[in-house]
Design brief:
The protein is 50% helix and 5% strand. It is mainly alpha-helical. It has a domain of 92 residues: Orthogonal Bundle (Arc Repressor Mutant, subunit A). A two-stranded antiparallel sheet has the order 1-2. Helix 1 crosses helix 2, helix 1 packs antiparallel against helix 4 and helix 4 crosses helix 6. The protein starts with a helix and ends in a 10-residue tail after the last helix.
């Protein structure tokens, strides 16, 4: 499974907001500049995050966006699941009726186990954990260096 830019960039945006939690609202242009993501794309990502009450907007000259919950209450798993529309490795995991072989499939169990492990790991990491460094960047990236292509 490859995560889309929606969840990767959405997580970066949420982490940026978490780093400024408790300060004044952050303007989308500032996030776009710091994260090297277009304002238009971030505006699209904010919509579902606002609907799910992860982000709130503040109007006015000093307005912008801020987290609607403390960073320790938001997990990476929640963000990814929302922006990906679920994080199952195979359709049959959430809905066995999508496959005629669900009942007898020899590979379905491994996809269930892997999905469960991914859910567990992503839901164990909060935005606060990432900021505080409870898990090192190396540990969070599985020992590999994260390379972002522009």
């Amino acid at each position: 499974m490859k995560l889309s830019t929606r969840s990767r960039y959405g997580t970066r945006m949420m982490l940026d907001l978490a780093q400024h939690y408790g300060e004044s609202p952050v303007q989308i242009g500032e996030i776009a500049r710091r994260q090297d993501i277009s304002v238009k794309y971030l505006e699209q990502l904010i919509i579902p995050l606002k609907k799910a009450n992860y982000i709130k907007s503040v109007r006015g000259p000093k307005g912008g966006h801020e987290l609607a919950k403390p960073p320790e209450e938001i997990t990476v798993g929640e963000i990814v699941e929302l922006l990906e529309g679920g994080i199952n490795l195979a359709d049959c995991i959430e809905n066995p009726d999508t496959c005629d072989r669900s009942e007898t499939c020899l590979t379905r169990g491994i996809w269930e186990t892997a999905t469960r492990a991914m859910h567990q790991e992503l839901n164990s990491i909060t935005l606060s954990d990432m900021i505080k460094g409870h898990k090192s960047a190396n540990e969070l990236q599985g020992g590999k260096k994260c390379i972002q292509k522009k």
